[in-house]
Amino acid sequence: MHxxxxxxGEFNRHANQKSEYAFxxxxxxxxxxxxxLYAKTNDPDLLKQADLLVDYSFSNKNQxxxxxxxxxxxxxxxxxxxxxxxGLWGLNILKATKNIPDDMMNKWVKVVEEAISPWLKYGxxxxxxxxxxxxxxxxxxxxxxxxxxxxKPDTYADIWNPLFPTHNYPMQFAECCLELxxxxxxxxxxxxxxxxxxxxxxxxxxxxxxxLYAENxxxxxxxxxxxxxxxxxxxxxxxxEILANEAVSNLFIRENQMFRSHTKEMRYDAVDGVGLLYFPxxxxxxxxxxxxxxxxx
Length: 297
Known about the structure:
mainly alpha; Glycosyltransferase; 2 domains; two-stranded antiparallel sheet; 6 strands; about 50% helix
């Protein structure tokens, strides 16, 4: 029902078979789900469907800049824009490769590399030490935030912005670079991981200006912990521990023995990432990560 066209692979965030919102995020979740189902069933049609989805999003890129369009189906702002959502797309596809044959895995890894490489080339502001929130697909120029429409990225990707969907996924992009370095050992991804680390350091001081959500804490801690371990960076691990202690202090309500979702309300919402926060807290406590956590990150 998510396919708008079973021949081209066009999909829709909504399960209504219409040509509407082919967001990268939604497509990558479908790919990951189909790959998981393929691993359980060995049904080749599931793998073909997943490959169609990958090809559809990747084919909708600007031929000059190589930037992949956020959502090509409707003529609105995101049809002319590429955001850090491409990093989330890449991360989900890399996770999906654990469930597919080697030949398809090699193809998808190369697709992810080619899809994110323009962002690594154009998307980092060396003076500010941060990645932009959005790039114009035709000229690769950063798109500054100039209006109050809430569902757009800020001028720079914001690691603490919890609003969904702003098509702002900096920590997932950072995780994608770490994963690519692990797979390929290519120094380009070491450099891009270093840049994401710099980006995180430059935004740590702004966290008190935000409502702090469990998911944002979880993803920042996750990246710092795994970056620190991958590159023997004790400063990153120290920051992960500082933020973990801060998250517990801010979110754990001792009289009730439970976490709240964020710092502005005394409530627990399942979608706010409390479950995600348990994983990095556990890793820091034990030094070990659970295979189960790969389902979520």
